[in-house]
């Protein structure tokens, strides 16, 4: 049987429900050959995960996932093989702190909107729920549920947190170009995450890819739970056409996305270990 890997996972360092160490343990239990931790906008889980991976003799890839906006839709860019060089990592961390600052401003506004609607909630409640450095909307949803303001996570989003709802606050977005540039500067391998989730026309998606390549985009996430087999085939061809490397992962978050398993996605995901060679070739030498 071919060896499998997972190059897209989240821990409590951002909006996942398992600690970085637990994510590595789960990957080991699943029999994966290699794992990348790719928390949103933070590197804070990498050290713990890397230590655990070493202990379990697993190949570990340092990663992160940056969110950007393009034509009013979310575009995510993964950075894989973040450098070992500490000064480069520190520079990247400084860039990411700006992201976190923006999130914090947004979070304060969400709290204000919820309070205005009579909900007894403070930023502290949500920060405690988050535990890590990054506070995101799933953490708000959990607190709303615990406080009895809603009866399910889905209701929290449908009533308050989703786009257009009463406590929604848009992000101050960066462009995908900027995300790729930040990662390129850090000597990471920038990969366009789950292209199917970018809500635009196929032509717009291709224009986006063509715009990002000269800025340093190196790969496309071909294997992802939202991609059908046809999508996989299509993005494989696209990667080939533009000489991009291919990546893939489950986008594991733990309890907030209970139908997604590490390494397996919804059950049908198979990310072959051989794609690592292609990604490694794109690493900054
Ligand atoms: Zn994403
Ligand atoms: Zn993700």
> How many structural units, i.e. domains?
2
Low-confidence stretches are: none
Q: Briefly, what CATH class of the largest domain?
A: Alpha Beta
Please name the CATH topology of the largest domain: TIM Barrel
**Count of helical regions:** 10
Pfam family, one: PHP
Protein name: PHP domain-containing protein
Domain Polymerase/histidinol phosphatase N-terminal: 5-70
Which key features would you list for this structure?
7 strands, alpha/beta, 42% helix, binds zinc ion, seven-stranded mixed sheet, globular, 285 residues, DNA polymerase, domain 1, TIM Barrel
Tell me about this structure.
With 285 residues, the protein is an alpha/beta fold. It has 2 domains: 5-86 and 179-281, Metal-dependent hydrolases (TIM Barrel); 97-161, Orthogonal Bundle (DNA polymerase, domain 1), CATH 1.10.150. It is built from 10 helices and 7 strands. It has a 7-stranded mixed beta sheet with strand order 1-2-3-4-5-6-7. α9 (229-241) links the parallel β6 and β7. α5 (137-146) crosses α6. The longest helix is centred in the middle third of the chain and has 31 residues, at 86-116. The chain starts with a strand and ends with a helix. The mean pLDDT is 93. The structure holds zinc ion (2 copies). One zinc ion binds next to loops.
């Amino acid at each position: 049987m071919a060896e499998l890997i997972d190059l897209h996972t989240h821990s409590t360092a951002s909006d996942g429900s398992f600690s970085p160490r637990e994510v590595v343990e789960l990957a080991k239990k699943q029999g994966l050959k290699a794992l990348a931790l790719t928390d949103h906008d933070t590197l804070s889980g990498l050290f713990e995960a890397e230590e655990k991976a070493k202990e379990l003799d697993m190949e570990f890839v340092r990663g992160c996932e940056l969110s950007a906006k393009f034509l009013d839709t979310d575009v995510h860019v993964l950075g894989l093989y973040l450098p070992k060089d500490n000064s480069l990592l520190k520079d990247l961390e400084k860039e990411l702190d700006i992201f976190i600052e923006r999130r914090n401003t947004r979070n304060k506004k969400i709290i204000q909107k919820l309070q205005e609607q009579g909900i007894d909630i403070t930023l502290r409640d949500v920060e405690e729920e988050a535990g890590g450095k990054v506070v995101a909307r799933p953490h708000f949803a959990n607190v709303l549920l615990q406080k009895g303001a809603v009866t399910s996570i889905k209701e929290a989003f449908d009533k308050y947190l989703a786009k257009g709802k009463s406590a929604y606050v848009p992000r101050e977005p960066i462009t995908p170009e900027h995300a790729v540039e930040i990662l390129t500067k850090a000597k990471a391998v920038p990969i366009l995450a789950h292209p199917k989730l970018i809500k635009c026309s196929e032509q717009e998606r291709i224009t986006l890819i063509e715009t990002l390549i000269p800025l340093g985009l190196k790969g496309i996430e071909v294997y992802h739970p939202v991609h059908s087999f046809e999508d996989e085939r299509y993005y494989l061809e696209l990667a080939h056409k533009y000489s991009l490397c291919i990546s893939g992962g489950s986008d594991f978050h733990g309890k907030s996305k209970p139908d997604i398993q590490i390494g397996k996605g919804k059950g049908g995901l198979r990310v072959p270990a051989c794609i690592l060679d292609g990604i490694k070739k794109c690493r900054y030498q």
